[in-house]
Amino acid sequence: MIGFPSILEGIEDLNREQVEKLLARTKELKIGSPARLPLKRKISVATSFLENSTRTKLSFIMAINLLKGIHIDFEAEKSSLKKGESLEQTLLTLNYQGFDICIVRTKETKLLSQFKQRPPIKMINGGDGTNEHPTQALLDLYTLNELFNGELAGKKVCIAGDCTHSRVTHSLMKLLPQFGIEITLCGPKEFLPKEIPAGIKTNANLEEALKETDAVYLLRIQAERHENQFDMSTYNEKWGLNLDLIRQVGRKIPVFHPGPANIGIEVDQELVDSNLWMAHKQVENSVYVRMAIIEAMVTNGDTNIGAKYNTINFDKGLTTNEENKV
């Protein structure tokens, strides 16, 4: 896709037209066949996941395979980074070895920002700290669009749980309103972001929030990101979602979850086993959305990738000793 960013760090790197093209291409890939793939050469993609992952990493690997590309798992902990090499030089090495893209997940927030002016290699953010998870938000948007048959404007989504520490929440807050979707954040006070974008509501009562939503997006408690230990033993009683609560609301409300779900805390097993549980559909769609993203980045026409050299004039102002040193 000409003009698609070479570094996808967050939703703001994309405009609406690019997102709409991704959604359309995802649909083609999902219903099509490998013969329809337009890539004219074999691509090579490295993944570097410095945090644990099941869904994101494996769906990217499956996407690469379906694109008939080569995948290498780059283990940063066993690389020359441990010998003092800079991250930029490591990424340049991957580029000159022939890799087209590096997909990175890291605990460090906005790690990719430093490379946007001079990309050493094309890069996709697989989730960075508590900042963003743009590819997850894009596959969620695709799944919502599929669920509501393309009628997104005016739909209401309740995001419930640990919103502060959820990078996908930060991406969803930037993406969904572009398509007319209203967002309500719901959860304990300490789980709500201190800064909430204009137009996004909050509700401290889950049952009330459910009465006014078309879909609910559950989040797990990200205990590994809390400075103080959070007591999860009482969370389910007040904030856990189950079929009984949905029955009380009196409407069938589809339930999204980015995974992994902590059954017995934010959701119960009966709901997970019901046809309201959309997490499996999200996982299914994740492969095709990530295929579309990789394809768009590879075909973006950007030639400004790799090392940039200063021109050295050896004939100007060099003494004999300096020449010998050269």
Q: From the helix content, strand content and strand pairing, which structural class follows?
A: alpha/beta
Kindly estimate the percentage of residues that lie in beta strands according to DSSP. Answer: 5-15%
CATH topology of the largest domain: Rossmann fold
CATH superfamily of the largest domain: Aspartate/ornithine carbamoyltransferase
Distinct helical segment count = 11
Strand arrangement, major sheet? 1-5-4-2-3
- Give the termini separation: 44 Å
Q: Write the H/E string, N to C.
A: EHEHEHEEHEHEEHEHHEHHH
Q: How many beta strands in the DSSP annotation?
A: 10
Low-confidence stretches: 320-326
Radius of gyration: 22 Å
Indicate the topology.
Elements lengths: L6 E2 L7 H16 L12 E6 L5 H12 L3 E4 L13 H10 L4 E6 L15 E7 L5 H14 L8 E5 L6 H9 L6 E5 L14 E3 L2 H6 L3 E4 L16 H5 L3 H7 L5 E2 L12 H4 L6 H20 L21 H6 L1
Parallel strand pairs: 1-5, 2-3, 2-4, 4-5, 6-7, 6-9, 7-8, 9-10
Helix pairs in contact: 1-10, 2-10, 4-5, 4-10
